[in-house]
Design brief:
The complex is a heterodimer of chains A (272) and B (129).
Chain A lengths: L7 E3 L10 E3 L2 E4 L1 H14 L3 E8 L3 E4 L41 E4 L7 E3 L4 E8 L17 H17 L27 E3 L2 E11 L2 E9 L5 H11 L16 H21 L2
Parallel strand pairs in A: 2-4, 3-4, 5-6
Antiparallel strand pairs in A: 1-3, 4-8, 5-7, 8-11, 9-10, 10-11
Helix pairs in contact in A: 2-4
Chain B lengths: L10 E3 L3 E6 L2 E6 L1 H7 L2 E5 L5 E2 L4 E7 L2 E6 L4 E6 L9 H4 L8 E5 L11 H9 L2
The chains are: A alpha/beta (272), B alpha+beta (129).
Chain lengths: 272, 129
Amino acid sequence: MPGTVTVTERTYPGLEDPPSVRRLPELTAPGVVQMAIDEGLLAEARWVTLRRYLWSPPAVSLGKFQRLPAAVAAPPREDGGPLRSGDVPPREHDVAPPAGLPFDVVRRPSGGRAVLHGAGFEWSFAVAFPAGWSGAEGARRRDSGVDEPYRLVSAAMADALAVAGVGVAADREEPYRRSALCFSTSLRHDLHTDYGKVVAVAQVRRAGAALVHGSVLMRRPPQELIVALEGLVGEPWRGEGLESARRVSGEAVWVSFSEALRERLHETATGR
Amino acid sequence: MADESYPADLKYYKEHDWVRVDGDEATFGITWYAQDALGEIVYVDLPEEGSVTGGDTYGELESVKAVSDVYAPVGGEIVAVNEKLADEPELINSDPYGDGWLIRVRLSDPADVEALMDADAYAAFLAEA
């Protein structure tokens, strides 16, 4: 990864986390750093942990096993071991793309298809659920399924968008079809406005823990990025973003989402 | 998608894997419950050779929405991998106890299988979920 990594943190004062839920500061950083942090959360989180982050420079994240028609291949990982605190980000996240692209190409630990990220038109979030995450007596078994983390995250985001005045639907699931682009397909728990998919989610489960990735498309990305992405994957771009429906603040949505998720986690843990 | 079933001739592991024992070898797969929870399987990442350790992960499955580990119920040396899954990973959904098998191993200790659940115990385990 050439050049200097620029990392910017931002906190949201006034929101106190209960011990069972931890919110990390907002981070603006390259994709390879963001994915390494999320690997760390999946491996190490002891509480439900959430964070919002912005990608700078812009990047395309590929799903864990996604293959592209272009000559994009991940180098083999060097030691095969899990990421530990303080480790250099493993090379498996740093994909060698064709030269001349206006964005980085990285690989997510989560499944799914390619997502175009970039501060200014998109923001991302991650929610890590440790094994036995409810923390309550009779904690959920590690096999609670992929649906429960999705249900919590999707419902909390729908709550947050409703607060912002945006109505979304989570029931526009289509039969699965192979597409290279995440925002071109609709699966259960993805969120839509009348203008298309606006929140995409993906998940990875490991050793009983789960990590949910989310991408919130605020507006149509710059045309230069779209053209390059279409050339990379051989498919047309789809996605106009949240602000096609209503002008909203990403920061406000994040604060509302954090609060809604905390409330829903509390309800789940206490059985209310 | 197959109908829900847990065949009586198999042994089961708490991570929702099944084991079919044949002499000193055993075939591994994931149960109907596991494939139903994951949804349509779209990619299978399995080792080509080597050994597996009971309780450890030996591969990953990607469904339409998630990437998940696969656990070895018991240890052994891999003697075969279901190569059909490379082109047809959905066999795990359509036939989890048949064409959707994952790997076959030569058991390190056949007695290890005795510690696994039978179908009735696994059904009770699921009921507690």
